Amino acid sequence: MPNASGLAPANALVTVTAPSGEIYTASADSSGNFSLELSPAPLTLTGSYGFTSTDSNNNISPSTAVQVSDLTAPTVPTLTVRDADGDGLPTLSGLAEPGSTVKITDPSGAVHAVVADASTGAFSIELSSAPSPLTGTYSATALDAAGNTSAAGAVTVNDLTCLLYTSDAAD
Known about the structure:
This protein is 0% helix and 42% strand. The protein is mostly beta strands.
């Protein structure tokens, strides 16, 4: 199901109108945050969504339009971890949706970001310092230009001196 979230006046009633006319409502919290699952899903998922808010005095805001053109998450990126040049620092490389931002989490929990090539989807980054621990699970997600995030692909590295460790999107 698609979700909508954002910021409105504190405690306001938020009304979302889908491109195909369905209407959904949610209440903003005391900080103005709102989030709702559009259920049942609108008949038309892409197009212009309208947002209004109504405060406690029944004042209705002007409508704000949000254009949605892509709701499809990228495919899971492949990930290879190896010491490409023998310096003890891992090189993280693979394939992802072309132009997407790949976020790789190393075994220490640090996140490293790299942009996949706009044509091929290839990415590669050598870490400037070795994570501690160096071995363990590395995971990667891809974030596309529309804000959709892929599921995570992961690879477990037991020994960086091995030739390479590769995840496969089919795993």
